[in-house]
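Bug: token stream looks shifted between consecutive jobs. Job 1:
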Amino acid sequence: MIYFIAVLSKRNSIIARTVALALSTAFLLSVFIASASAQQWPSADADQTMKAMHDELERSRSMQMTNLQKPYFIQYRLLDLDVRTITASFGALVSSSTTHNRFMDVNIHVGDYKLDSSEFISGDGFQGFLGSAGQVGVDGDYNSLRQDLWLATDQAYKAALDNMAHKQGFLRSLSKPPEIADFSQEKPYVKIDPRILPDWTNRNWEQEAKQASAALRAYPELYGNRITYTLIYETYYVMNTEGTQVRTSRSLAAIEANMETQAPDGVPMHHYYATYVARSVDLPAATEVSQQLDSRGKQLMAMRTAEPMPAYSGPVLLESHAAASLLAQMLTPSVTGARAPLSMVPIVDQLMDRLGGRGEWSGRLNSRVLPTDVSLADDPMGADAQGHPLAGSYVVDEEGVPAQRVPIVENGILKNFLMSRRPGPDADQSNGHARALFLSDPRAASSNLIFRSSKGVAPDELKKKFLAACKDAAREWCLMIREMDNPALGITSQEDLTAEVQDLAAGASSGERIPLAVYRVNVSDGSEQLLRPGHLLGMNLRVLRDAYAFGNDSSQFSYAQDQRPGYAGTALAIFSSSVTGVASTLTAPSILFNDVEGREARGEMRRLPLVPPPSIK
């Protein structure tokens, strides 16, 4: 989906741009004559990256400008990124690559914390040739990096002046301008961790990818499958004029696999497997991945010939893994106190509404939003049972604010929101939850959500409650779901994925969700029959508030949360991958809903292959 946004009158655009360009020369001169007596970075520190960032920041901070609004906040971010990617199919290596890149981003605010140049969409602002973000040298050369930072600072400053002029003009046209501050003032934070260099040698990743993907040779009906191992090491730097200085290293390892086929009637079908961990050593062994792929291959083959899920209304039981995936979709837009950017373009607000990006909990602090036995918290420093950090873990967020565990809901009562430095109507300070994909704009987002019920019952008891609810509804059978879908991982064709996402987007605001492993459970004997997946309807937080029962079991669902504009903060955010989203987890029990509606999927029938598949051994 591509949206073209045109704004501002041509006359105002020319005026604002002319002012910005005319004033830019003064800025460049002021940087060159800035005081040379700025505080020096300790010479004992061998990291020339931090020294270059510090020295250039101090020079920019002390610049003197005539007739120009001086920045009150300047921030430099730099990312040193190493990525190893291995892809295999049917036991054969498809590709293997290793890349090392460094990227920078400069963010400048003019004005003050109450009203500044940030978070405003005009659609027509200053666009410099070089930009305020981009790629820099990989060797950490001091002089080269300072040159890059100087040019990027100039571009960011011009853009900030231009944006502030547009923003002030737009605010004057409003009968009731916003009263919430634009940016929160935070205490400076200093954390200089040792750099961690990538290690690709602890396991034979190419051999593991080939071994795991070979499991799908047993299913010649598959016309497409890929398994991709992605190993990411990054050193993240952030430094700003408030005094924050951070260097921290972190890593992510992911396995993502898809398999695609067609049903006998020509409808395309798919399945997927994904896991995300903070350290590559914690990835499952190839034998375990092979077993997972084989299990999903068998399930997909059974789905091909299964009956389609019919129109439905009645109780639905989601086992813990499916429940955690569903909750990730339902909760993502509502757990943050994020305030959308001020926009001159109505389509921006319309898109957020259409994609399920409006939080259902805004303005409801200290009100009941979930069942009274439920608690919900987010812990960026969460660890698993062995003490290993979870996939979504971090110690300092993308804005240099220390990570904090945040109790969001206690006994069903909404207590807090996850916040970045963008104040909202219910909270005005960050609690360390600004997240970003590489160096994209930081946004408030969850990390490791924990959803618990103090009155959960054993899985067998929950199943009995489920069957009893079906009898009370006078149904002969009901639906049980073991896994939710993620088309971003299951579908490789861009055309098919676009069509699927558009279908999802059309129903996102009304709570339409896509299960993957759906079973028809007969009330008389509890027997199960796999169905071809359909859609669930109306699955929003109002339905969750009235959930019938919870289990005392739990599953940890790991996923990539999309941070790209248009997806971040919406119900579509969990449909992502390791290269388009930030790693996150959600731990939840099984959930029983008493009354849910569903419909049959509307898949397009296509011609089947005319030539039979080869015999693969």
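Job 2, same session, no restart:
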Amino acid sequence: MRFHDNSFEQITNDTLWTAQWLDRGNRMFERDKNQPSIIMWSMGNEAGDGQNFKKLYQMLKDKDSSRPVVYEPAKLELHTDVVFPMYDTIEEISEYAESKYDRPLILCEYAHAMGNSVGNLIDYWETFERYKSLQGGFIWDWVDQVIAKKDSNGVEYWAYGGDFGKEFTENDSNFCANGLIAADRSLNPHIKEVKKVYQPIRFKSDNLKRGRVKVTNDFDFINLSDYTFSWFIKGDSKIVASGRLGTLDLEAGETRTLTFNLSSIRPKLGVRYFLTVQAKTKYKKPLIPKDYLVAWDQFELPIYKESKAQDPSNLTSINLFKNELNTEVYGKGFKVIFNHEMGQLSEYEINGLSIIKKPIKTNFWRAPNDNDLGNGMPARTKIWKEASERFSTLSVESELKNNTAQITIISEDPLSSSTLRSKYFVYGNGVIRINQIIEVKDSTVSEIPRFGLKLSMSGEFDQVSWFGRGPHESYWDRKTSAAIGHYSGSVWEQSFPYVRPQETGNKTDIYWMAVSNGSNGLMAKGLPTFDGSVHQYPYEDLDYVPGSQRHGNLDIKSKDHLDWLIDYKQMGVGGDNSWGARTHNKYTLFPGKYEFSIMLIPFDNKNNLSQLSKLKFE
């Protein structure tokens, strides 16, 4: 009826349809009235509004005054007991809460989980917790609505709109691939964020210097006597202290302060210490096993001490050469070459092994996710897709000082009104410290999808380790569920095969990340942290091709190639909806000035990566 000249009102206000309206509602009521799981009656979904809905509301209230009746199109009218909006923003629900309305608000749909999504969920829930009248919402959707098919080679993939020939002449492409779980009920990455944000027991730092953490029972009715609490403190990847708190007999809504004895910890230089508190089930229950992790949180203890800096002059001597085309640095067992025209580090060789296949590039693009496509990001930010190719070198300066080669390259891209300053420090052990500053002067230029570096390497570097958030992918606006720790695995398994290929595999708050071929490798150390990802294929394979019918399980294949993205940041994945909503401002790189620094540290299999990450120079 939405396409009728009178839209839904053609029948919602027509008395000839009133009996149908009431009969439909009455059959629903009689079918489910004795089901204790039914807590509200809904009069329908996206069907317009009118007098017939008002009459149906009154009939349901006459039959059952104990349950609320809800209807989204009723908005603020009186024939809905709960204001039930769809995809309202945080600003809109906050405005409602501050207007002192006398009815609760529940989002009947929100956090559209299409593709790589469900960003800023924590911001919604901090808002829900702030106002009593805001009582949560229902994420759309629970499960990807796609169908398993096989290609001509017998490889199974998830088919979506457009994969069924002439069976359906109209379709919504992959729009129904919007679930927290896949069609086979395996988990999509973003469901981990939902579990963390939704956890019913909350931990909050109180005074970490004194080892104090507050725990709050966010259940509405039950106490915490059915849960056991434990804690541990890790220094880097090693547990240095742990204990059990036993049972906390905390009633619903109550808060208690826990105190942990930190006096036994003697901080080591360069080691970061994190306290993790956990709540697990004490007993086995239907669907939930004993010792199931229900809630947790992690806190960095304020006891970090910087490692001692080395004097570069104590390392093997290096030589610096400069000609018209290149600036070249040579040391014992390594060479580093900077190409003047490209303004980039073009060769990096350690003991005869070429670390990079191509010159390192400053990178500004991310493969659009489904939310990006819905809000027009590819067209809006296209100026950044090829920006790294447009930068032209303005100046190259170099000097050898304190046995350190210092190279400064300034480049510009007039089209994006951007100036890039890259400064490199090459030390006698082959380590390179990189500092990059981008300044976008024109405030009318679009947001920047990402700012960082791309290293293209041989596919033999197929193993990765990192100390940062993990083990699953995380993003600027979706990282609450990823604990900081030491993780490792294959490069290939860091990518998730979304129904339609798109950005995947990012890690946030990385202190160091290392790729290896089993014998040799390269570490990137953040100064202090960076975001990044590794891909066993050219990152461009994930990019959106208009009019294509691509699939994560078919079109993203392991290749003899590694793309390593080392970023200041990329913008958040978004998630308010997938048809126009942009990434929130607080997770967006608008025109301005951004800076980040890393160190590239070559290693072999004799090195201890944790110890290597403590390397620091004066």
